[in-house]
Structures are given as structure tokens and as C-alpha cells.
Sequence to fold (286 residues):
Amino acid sequence: MDGVTPITPARLSLNTATTKNWTLREAVDGAARAGLQAVGLWRDRVAEVGTGRAAAMVRDAGLRVSSLCRGGFLTAADPATAAIALNDNRAAVDEAAELGAPVLVMVVGGLPTGNRNLAAARVRAGERIAELVPYARQRSVQLALEPLHPMYCADRAVISTLKQALDMAADHPAADVGVVIDSFHTWWDPELPLQIQRAGAERRIASYQICDWNLPIASDALLSRGMMGDGFIDFAAITRWVDAAGYRGDIEVEIFSADIWARDGDAVVGLMIERYRALIEPFLIG
Fold:
């Protein structure tokens, strides 16, 4: 109806990576101004103001924290570097707990410099996740393993498929270790429907993150994400699979893109809502 503001999707969350040109205060205010109910926070934004102040900022705006990004980078071969990483991850768990974030997204790490033993790196990642589980459990924070596209295997994540993430999580209760389904990282996987079904059956879907796969790949491959609908991903199919698997949590838009970052933040959030309504919401049955 004319003159009536449409209700903003209740499950849509703004990940602060999408509006990287905004401070935490600007991102929280922008999300609230747009009528969103949740934000996904990156630790660099939280560090701008401190965890306690960040928690109050989100709470006072009437928002919830859908996730905290990120923990991980646990594949170091030398004990000293591994110990530093574990301490940083414990700090990340503490931050998540103070923020009220139910999920700490875990990007497990790539190959250590000069090391080519991929199998051993995966073993170390699994062992260190196991070390962190009791600490996170005490603070009611779920560790969420995020598989990254194989092009990031060397430097960011030796977990490349949802199956690998689920296999690593399988040694732990679902309440302790879940998985992230990120459309950018998983859309290409021919086993994706089966593994999403498995993740749902195991009750391990901790987060659903969305953005598009655009070409050409940027010179910095990390910045090749795009707004939903601008690339190649079939969001209807993936959203149907995630919904059928029983996921009812927040859906975060997380975009790393120099082009998106250069735009006005309010315009980005507005477009994000528009694309969510067209490409995601119609396929959420639950």
C-alpha cells in the first residue's frame, strides 16, 4: 500500500564485512535504520570500540548478533605459533560470549609457509578445534567450521567442502561444533545438496551466509564476491536445500568487494534487502 513501509525480513542480517567503509557504530545504526534485526560482526570492528561497548551498542539499537567472525588459523606446524593461535581463539570465544553471539565462525587456516603437507595441516586443524571445544562449551559458544572455496586452500582454509567440515565436526556434539554454509564458497560443489541434507540431519547448520560469485576474479581473489543476483549462483536451489534441512536461523549477507565497499552504505543495505526479498525469501518455507 502507498505510504506503508514494508516489513524488513526478520532473518536477514548485515555482516559488517559488507559495509567495510562503515565503522561499527555506522553499521549498527545503518542496520537499525533499515529495520534489520541482526548484525554479523567482525572482530576488527568490535576492536574499534571494545567488546563491552560493542555489545551495548548492538543491544541498545535493538539488534542481535548473528555471528562473530572469525576464529581459526589453527594449522601452524610449530608449537609456539600454534599456542599463540589457540590463545587468540580463546579470546575470540570470550568476545563472542560477551557479545551474545551464539556462533564463532572458524576459518581453520591454510598451509604454513614452506609446508606442502596438506593432510597433516588438516589433522592439526582438527586437533586444535578439539582443544577449543571445552572452552567454547563453557561459554555457550558454538564453533562453526566454514569450508572455503578450493582457491583459498593454500592460504586460508584447508577445509574446502561441506563434507570435509562435517567430517571434522563429527567427533563433537552438534551444540559444540557446527558448520557454515556460505553460498560463495560452496555453490560449485556437486555434493552440496547431499551434504546440506546431512548437515540438517546432524543439526549442524550454524550459519547461512550469502553473496554471489562474480567474474572476472579480482586480482585479490578475496574480493571477488558480489551482490546476490549479479553473478552465477542459483540462490533458489541452495536456499531450498538449506530450508528443507531445517535451518531457521539468521541469513547473513557477507560481501568482500572493492566495488561494494565504494558505494554508499545505506544504498548497499537497501539493495541487499531488495535482492533478499527477490532471491531468498520466496524459497524459505519454514
Remarks:
- The chain has one domain: 12-283.
- The chain is about 40% helix and 15% strand.
